[in-house]
Amino acid sequence: MSIDLYHGDCITKMNSMSDGSVDLIVTDPPYLMDYQSNMRVKTDKFEKIAGDVDGHQLIRDYFSECNRILKDNTHIYSFCSWHHIDFFKQEFEKFFKLKNIMIWHKGGGGIGDLEGSYSTDYEFILFGHKGRKELNRKALGKRTSGMLKFKKVFPGAMVHATEKPVDLIELMIKASSDKDDIVFDGFMGAGSHGMAAVRNERSFVGCELEQGYFDTAKDRIESASCTLESFFG
Question: Are the C-beta atoms of 208 and 233 separated by less than 8 Å?
Answer without folding.
Answer: no
